Fold these 2 entries.
Entry 1:
Amino acid sequence: MAIAPPADRMWWRTPVARPEIIWIVVSFLWGLVMFFTMIYWHAYGKQNLSNETYRTTPMKYSAKVDEMVGKFQVRDDNGIPVVRPPAGGDVYMLARTWMWYPHIELVKGQSYKFHFSSLDLQHGFSLQPVNVNLQVHPGYEHVLTFTPDESGEYSVVCNEFCGLGHHLMLGKIYVVEK
Amino acid sequence: MSNQEHTNERVPVMQRVLDNPFLLLFLGVTMPTVLYIIWGIIEIAQIPVAP
Amino acid sequence: MVATPESLPLPAAHEEPRFRTCASTGLKIHLAAQTLIKANAVTAVVFLAIGGLFGLLVALTRWPAVHLLPADWFYLVLTAHGLDVLLLWIIFFEIAILYFASAVLLGSRIAAPRVAWAAYALMLIGGLITNVAVLQGGSTVMFTSYTPMMAAPNFYLGLIIFAVGALVALGVFFGTLVVARDERTYEGSVPLVTFGAITAAIIAVFTLASGAIILIPTYLWSLGLISMPDPLTYKLIWWGMGHSSQQINVSAHVSIWYLIAAVVLGAKPLSEKVSRMAFFLYILFLQLASAHHLMVEPGLSSEWKVFNTSYAMYLAVLGSMIHGMTVPGAIEAAQRANGYDKGLFGWLRHAPWGNPAFAGMFLSLIMFGFIGGISGVVLGTEQINLIMHNTIYVPGHFHGTVVAGTTLAFMAGTWLLLPLIFQREIIWPRIARWQPYIFAIGAGGISLFMMGAGTLGVARRHWDITFADASMSFSYPPAAFLMMGLNGICALFAATGGIMYILTVVATVLWGKRIADGQAVQLASPKARVVTEYGSIEHPKIPGTIILTVIFFVAFVLYYYVNWKYLAEVWPMR
Ligand code: HEM
Ligand SMILES: [Cu+2]
Ligand SMILES: [Cu+2]
């Protein structure tokens, strides 16, 4: 019984039954398959994180954001600038309580180097309805390349609790055909 | 009883390991401390400053 | 703190420990240990009642048609919900389990009762301080309290005191192991259930130490004494506590599964070696999965992420998959030996489904495996996490582990503790009988519907998924609203099952018929008594379990690759 010491003092030597051995082998192999699937995806899959990251400061980062806005603003959404950076260029996304700044316009099928950082607290970049989710930290600049493959209006929800206005934080990314 | 039969045998090594809670405690604390925490902190410490 | 003379594993010469012998199980029970078990278990149940109520309020707020609480209260109550159930209910109950698995199962005295009481007091005081801090309103930071968000100093102080108290209690547990060994209260190796408890305790040491290590500087920061702990480092170490505490739960509830199968059916493990090695894999690898929470974080390499999130090539998952077969396998073998040997599933049909301890245990086993376990591995896959991180899929997953799995298993264990430790007859057996089913429907439902809504992108910890007050407009698809509504309905079931549990337990403890010291209670179906005497089941045949295992495996593989397919459809990124 499981609530008494093993009846056989040398329980280590008790042979193990077939079904258990088979299940252990199957489970072990399945674990390897899952492990190598992740590695395979790094080599052949299309959705991976670069994990390219830099230490930054809110000041330094907002300067880059402002520079981008100054150069590439095309219009505004109720006062929030919409920028259209050149294809292949850098896109600086800033999170702060409680907005995503600025809004972005991209061209379908082109690649963009996105940068993420926060001015204050942690925020959660949740791109909807694509459903891609990234954590955004203050003090760190996270860099990755996105290639939007369908046009439309996308929303950026914040899905890391960031205070009482957390549910007000909503940004936009527009993907256009040309 | 099986207990009697075995009294002179040596307890197998792996069984002795599993019977030693303090050795297990050592392993169970060291593994995550090294592989998760220390390795993680080393990586965070190596993040370069933004250009 | 641990080094008072009381805690040293010396025979207490000054006062003879007093024991009673349990007429139902033959176990020799140290009365001081018994009282400690009672105190910790009752406190746990009180915190479950409070935290469960908060959970219901949260779920009713997230039910779009009800939207009960205003935003500030929602976030406050959600913070309190996480703390009260995840830390206080679970860890108090675990301390009760540890004392039971050491002192009671080994027939030993508990090492240092006074120190154990001090530990209890610290945990209680700490828990109360943090609760008060949250309810005062200045600490709505969620129980994760990520920096730079700052709570009131007492929020951290309470948690630190709680963690220190729990560490002291772990010291008593390890001390009791030493006492039992030195005083030779048992022969050979400790029972499997005790071994599982040792696993839980070891993981708990790492858990609570991580918690104390990160919360102390955070506390000093909130007092204005030092600068802010780096958010990324904070998160790394905090999850050493936050996730590992879930691994304590897994080890503890697996032990409870074995315990209930043994007490109710006389089941013995198919193989001591295999089951113990499965726990050993937990000890070595389970805690690495703290990395699950850092999959889409900047600054950690994919090597670190892949290695840690997979528990070093899924070796801890291997442990769980082993238990997933050996627990039902042991039950099947015992039931067949009990005479229920017809067909593939005769043993299961004739299982004691009317016994809430068994029913709760088996439902916990199934739901932990199919809902919590599978979703956990998928969610913890480095790249798949991209389409799930911080969506409500995450709470969906962990209500499958910690509610449908751990909480249900602990509830099931309570139905045994009441007669054996509290020596009270369950006051309303019919309510107890239905409780596991109602709670399981609710807990399983909230898990599945939150997972469903999360797949559609719904954010966790979010007051308004219509974004009515935001400057831009967006709304999740209608199916997501439907899921959140169904989640609310299931929450009502879970709450009903929870209330049935709490009322019955409290009433039993207060007014249940006393069971006299020499009086045995019937825990098992009469036939099972024969098997407890049964030396060994030499070659158990477990065809039913094999079929269940195959079904599980197929579900696992399919669900795993379906999610890779979902991932492959999102924007390419590198
Ligand atoms: C009546 C039973 C319960 C119901 C209806 C319930 C419901 C919920 C809901 C709807 C959420 C919020 C998800 C969100 O908005 O992010 C939540 C969060 C949570 N629940 Fe429960 N729950 C129950 C019991 C439990 C139990 C027993 C535990 C642990 C043992 C638990 C642990 C948690 C935790 C840790 C969170 C996350 C809090 C956070 O995000 O900070 N729940 N629960
Ligand atoms: Cu935010
Ligand atoms: Cu937010």
Entry 2:
Amino acid sequence: MNQGGVEGGSYKPFTTSQIEMLHKASMKVFEEVGMEVHSQRALEIFFAAGAEVDFSTKRVRASEEWIMNLVKKAPSQVTLCGREEKNDLVLGGKRVYLGTGGTALNVLDIDTGIRRRTTLSDVRQTAKLVDALDNVHFFVLPVYPSELSKETVDINRFYAGISNTSKHVMGGVYSIEGVRKVIRMAEEIAGGKEALRKRPFISMITNIMSPLKMDGTYTDLMLEVIEAGIPLATPPAPIAGATSPVTLAGTLVQLNVEALSGLVLAQIVNPGTPVLYSVVPTTADMRTMGFLFGAVENGIMNAVCAQLAQYYDLPIYATAGVTESKLPDVQSGYEKMSTSMLAALAGANYIHDAVGLIESGLSVAYEQYVIDDEINGMVLRAVRGIEINEETLSLEVIKRVGPGGNYIADEQTYQYMRSEFFMPKVADRSPVTIWETNGAMDGREKARRIAKDILANHSPTPINQAIVELLKARNPELVTD
Amino acid sequence: MSNVLEELNQKVIEGKLEIVQELTRQAIAEGHDPEEIINQGLIMGMNVVGVRFKAGDMYVPEVLMCARAMSGGMEIVKPLLMGKEIVSAGKVLIGTVKGDLHDIGKNLVAMLLESVGFNVINLGTDITTEQFIQAIKEHKPDVLGLSALLTTTMLGMKDIIDQLVEEGMRDEIKVIIGGAPISQEFSDEIGADGFAPDGASATELCQKLLA
Ligand code: B1M
């Protein structure tokens, strides 16, 4: 069962008037400080659209009215499709989905537990795992294949993902030529240019650099994706105290400016193009300035960003469920749960990074995918909340059973026993003697066994063999297994 | 030690720029030797900061405030040294390699190096091999520090070291490398002199290499 799309929104760190304070402050930054844009093309596009552009300092400033007019052109709802319709994600409003994130460099080997460099095979295997996990709704390409060069990496990463899951595949991209090849490949698989635009089962990520900077190369990549009309996330990743103000409110002001910049550029170039309000709010450990992905403050900031997206009526790409821990352990459990829970309860739509990543995003672990699937299941259950109506208030049942009776075999218990509770697969709930008989396993070992079982037995819906042959013929660099 | 130098120590540790400058002037007026002011007032304070930072008791922003206070004092004493060079711990040329825009870690390393007395030239990000070589010829640093955060850019470090060998410059300079994907094995593989996993170890590594 794909439980994605449950409505969140019960956790609201800010009131509407506080959200407006953030908005107003961001608009002042747009007007008085602006963004530094290192792509000549983008500068010209901003200028032609009426922003105030200083070409010598590469600074783009704009008024609230100008910004908001463009924000209004962005779609309030973006559907990221799967290769199979059952996996479609309807982003917008307060609907919540969770999935993987990248781009890690190492993996804890599933057999030895030893940390090693990732390869293309890890892209395939993680995709296959995700395909089978119910509480993982999309696949952001999670690792970098260390054996591939920048020139061949884009098409191979995407192919490894697409061919091993029919869930939506999103990924970072490394070259313009790579972007073009990936889009052409996806068009072949979709059955044509139009077919892909109608049912986009891939999307891309190009970054904005905090503080307040759009890099030349990455902005040109961004423009390429915008012009192709492929769904896009343009996340900035400010680090409070390092690349944005140390106060969380100040970081949110700056982040909002950066997030809106990518979105606004997209709407100038290709009005209505599917782009997500994208955020990666982060922090640093003030003792060392080490980067933090799993801090509770990151979770609170993501929740506020969800409120901002709702205020602008935009679908949001948010970030949660990562950890600083080097292995699946207690720390990874509580860090992941706290940030994912906060973002989801706030109604963030597309919560990425929430599956598989450890070590501040530098590594992944197969068993962590299984554990995070379970965390997400709990998170989604919390988001769903408690259904309350005449029937669930159960007055009739309470009367029927009466004092001293029991509800175990009651009609209503039978009716609700599967839908009322989240049923974990990893958590051990048995008495100690049975737990001992079963091998006295901890959660990590149990999750590892589940992962191995999926990898051995699950078969994702394949891409049509004729299309695979065609792709191989067109792209000699394509590695198909 | 005299009162004013002890107080100077304390105020460097507290990171109080203006007070440090005021006390430095007072120490000069009281007739203290400039070198004594530097070594026993300013640097000794900074040494304490280093120890506390390593122990996790002081935070990075505090360390930088202390370093700023110390340099504020230095600027005032420097002209009195009458041409005598202040003993710099060494000159480090640092930059992020071609194609890579990550600069937070590299800047932090630069600031921490400065805080322990290195003279640092920070080239910025996305620096080509030619730019590094050019800058080395110009500044003649003791140490070249390379930073890379991407698997797609880390090989650029090898190109730079190879170029140093090619130009016959490799023996004149120590090369240290760092960044999230970098390991000691990689450092050995490409022939660097050392790898540092974080800012504090980068300063120790430079000190060790130049000792
Ligand atoms: C000279 O001697 C020395 C000695 C020690 C040295 C040293 C030099 N240099 C560093 N050290 C060491 O000491 C420092 C201080 O303790 C330490 O430095 P660090 O830099 O490690 O630590 C800093 C204090 C804090 N850490 C950081 O600043 C890096 C944090 C992470 C999250 C990160 C950030 C912030 C950013 N990123 Co980027 N980013 C990630 C990082 C993930 C991570 N967990 O590391 C990483 C490195 N990024 C990644 C990626 C993929 C990318 N990023 C990109 C962009 C960005 C931002 C602009 C958003 C931002 C950088 C902002 C900036 N001004 O630097 C893109 C590339 C841009 C480019 N061409 O460089 C882009 C390609 C994303 C995309 N698809 O568009 C991943 C690399 C994966 C790979 N295969 O290589 C990544 C691991 C995140 C992830 N899991 O996806 C040590 O490494």
